[in-house]
């Protein structure tokens, strides 16, 4: 979700008076916009009051470069004021030669977290949840450390272990759990078994999908209905979204693309579009479209879902490490929102990844421009150039195509962060 399959290298976890190395394939249920676009973070340029006009030809040209670089296919939707553009490039199905379409359903991974965080903050607006209350007040006995607060779950400073480390233990596990059904309580138990990454509230935080599984249980307790139902009725429908939902089966509705990965060359490129998403749950299971994602972020920033005061709290960030090997570039993480800097200034959003699909959805801070984009290939060595082209396309889409050509590889190299698809994480 956060970026998708997080294939992790060995690292030490602190806590309980010990540390232990772990090498495994990890589900990235969230690597963060700051990682996907790390190489584009240069000094912000002054912004005009009006959003730059859409250069439709250039947007399509940069999107076409994504499949030319080895990614199967890509789609994007961009809004700038009253202008809208949608585009697609490459193939949705490599075997049948079926082309991508911009209206396809897509697993959005950890962009789900922004929806869930919005739902929790709605309950804060209503006075039913207090951000700095301990989770123990609402879910007694669930977590062993009573110092963990609701805010710590939202901004990943709880230091709960990440359950995906226990689920995705190597390339073979990707197939093994394809149809495995997990319950939220089982996921929390697995996260606790992984062990803490630090002390509650300690900075920097460490990204953990288990935080948002606990938040789903919290929503259910406070609202008296399943978290998925609450998010659907009070976030998705209120935002006017018609093609966004929590899946009930492993199958995606049509039209949808295939979802390809080779787990960094561990096996031939394989389709994982059919997958039981219970392992991601309220941390990353949502299905949506690029148009719906732009509508959601417009509704969130426009005050239709939460109060202005609560939106300001969502945008109050702390440093959070997105994963192993990325300590040199902590994310600016708020309450389910990531802040990062591109040439045109601050941008707010999230990225997401599940097996075979990556997503970025973001909005300019002043609300003048929105972009959502997805690709259907990940963790595939031959797609590295395509992922780099996707980053350039994203910057051009949010800032205007004239600012898309930054020295991304050099910037990322200087930060000590290789593009994620170039090196198998378990080998780093």
Automatic annotation (TrEMBL):
The keyword Nuclease does not apply. Residues 1-21, 406-428 are annotated as: Disordered. Residues 7-21 have a biased composition (Basic residues). It comes from the Bacteria. One of its GO terms (molecular function) is carboxypeptidase activity. It holds the Pfam family Beta-lactamase. SUPFAM superfamilies: beta-lactamase/transpeptidase-like (SSF56601). Gene3D superfamilies: DD-peptidase/beta-lactamase superfamily. Keywords: Carboxypeptidase, Hydrolase, Protease. Residues 60-355 form the Beta-lactamase-related domain. This is D-alanyl-D-alanine carboxypeptidase. It comes from Thermopolyspora flexuosa.
